[in-house]
């Protein structure tokens, strides 16, 4: 079969590799029907995730059809159409038993495309299949469902829920890429009074308006002054960092009001300065997190009911064999206008 293989920072290839086999009785093998590329995959290719070893098949977001199941898998059967979650959960450890699947101590957590081979391939092995997949209801399209593998639950859980967005709040989202747009979309579940999107790209600020931001500010402008004017000098109730660079995190800490919350979602490859000399007196709460995907069933119900528009994230569609072209398009959004790309078998 063919798969997208990471070799070293800056080196990837769509190449022939062995088809995966069942290793553990809790495994399933899926034929990949739809897969997407994540900003974290680009971070890996930049060398920001050194745990990823050369030879690793990348990818952690897919929809597929079950081909084989291990002897211990009871909730799936061949032919089932499933969402493969970006987080694998053993279902037995301390963290899994409290719904904190991202911190699984039983061999799960973020492993696909990270510490085990991922899903940017024609076939994939899914560990802990019963607790790491979701059978898709009829009528839910593959391309919409694959948006629930990572970006929507990530933005919802690590951004909106950690940020404790409430009715009437002013929410500032720094970064209007796919994660930021998903935070804009899911923040609206809680009826904030204002959603402010901040980015350097005019095209992404336009997308933020389409996704529900009522105010957009170019990051090159005086963002703090704009937020202060909007909030009578108080600052944002919640600032969500959706980029993963020091400047955006530090901007969030300047935008939030005393007693407010900074929810960091972005994947950082460099240290950011924490200005405790300013923050210590302001009662600011800072949260970080890896998604647990505990909200995926809720989002899937909303998708099936027509209450969540996930397809709107997709700007480009490719065949699976066009993986290299899809990576190039996704990696250069300023030129391509890409938000999310989806590849189909």
From TrEMBL:
Domain Enoyl reductase (ER): from-to ranges: 7-343
Entry cofactors: Zn(2+)
Enzyme class, broadest EC rank: oxidoreductase
Keywords for the protein's UniProt record, in alphabetical order: Metal-binding, Oxidoreductase, Zinc
Enzyme Commission identifier(s): 1.1.1.-
Residues that span the membrane, as ranges: none
Protein name: Alcohol dehydrogenase
Similarity-based family: Belongs to the zinc-containing alcohol dehydrogenase family.
Highest rank taxon of the organism: Bacteria
Molecular-function GO term, any one: oxidoreductase activity
